[in-house]
Amino acid sequence: MLLSILKKHHHQFHPVVPFDREKDCLYPFDFTDKNNDLTKDQVADTESFAKYINDTLTKHPCRYGIGGYNEHRTLYSTRRQFDGDDEPRRLHLGVDIWGPVGTRIMSPLDGLVHSFAFNDHDGDYGATIILTHNLEGTHFHTLYGHLSLNSLKNLQSGRRIRKGEVFTEFGMRFENGNWPPHLHFQIVLDMGDREGDYPGVCKYSERDRWLENSPDPDLILGMGGLVNSRP
């Protein structure tokens, strides 16, 4: 049901980050074992990882890097956050948009603040905000991870966020889970009893179940067709 509704409204969503479709382009980052230009040691060191991101965007050149949905990120083996007793979590459930600290983030449609939290663990979301939306009577959520702590100041659950409103921004490493600056954007149908947090990575063996509850974020972002495109 939600998939058909999102497809129906896809031309109506506001951009989540500033992007000039006439001038800007996107670089498709690959964080699977197919990426021979990035080592696990680089991913483990935030400064080295950030340098790889920035150098790649400068080289091509692209305003943002993007990708990650339904991606088996074997490079996550450097982050204990994703380890498990029986099977590690490696399958990415959202889209990452890589860019400068302070990049503005806007709501793609009207919504309410569902919850927020500072998930302050290495490799976690850091500052996180979750919005609730309603389209044609169907409720769903959008999750924004790796934000600035300033975004959480004076924030309250239930606050109305208007379509196109700047309500947060990319955070620095000490406030975003110790990652190079980026946005983790994810659609969540059912939050269950979770508040301020929802898994953005799952076990590969549980892939179908988690993807069903977190469909492709590009249904809202609409940025997939812009990868590597130039005017």
Task: Explain this structure.
By secondary structure, the protein is of the alpha+beta class. The chain has one domain: Glucose Permease (Domain IIA) (Distorted Sandwich), CATH 2.70.70.10. It has 5 helices and 13 strands. An 8-stranded mixed beta sheet has the order 1-2-5-12-9-8-7-10. A hairpin with a 2-residue loop joins strand 8 and strand 9. The longest helix is centred in the first third of the chain and has 14 residues. It is globular and about 45 Å long. The mean pLDDT is 92.
Quick overview:
The protein is an alpha+beta fold. Helix content is 16%, strand content 28%. The chain has a single domain (2-226), classed as Glucose Permease (Domain IIA), CATH 2.70.70.
Radius of gyration: 17 Å
Query: What count of helical segments does DSSP give?
Result: 5
CATH domain class: Mainly Beta
Query: What is the architecture at the second tier of CATH?
Result: Distorted Sandwich
Outline the secondary-structure elements.
Layout: H1 2-8, E1 26-28, H2 40-44, H3 46-59, E2 64-67, E3 71-72, E4 89-92, E5 95-98, E6 104-106, E7 111-119, E8 126-135, E9 138-147, E10 160-161, E11 166-169, E12 182-188, E13 201-203, H4 207-213, H5 218-221
Parallel strand pairs: 1-2
Antiparallel strand pairs: 2-5, 3-4, 4-13, 5-12, 6-11, 7-8, 7-10, 8-9, 9-12
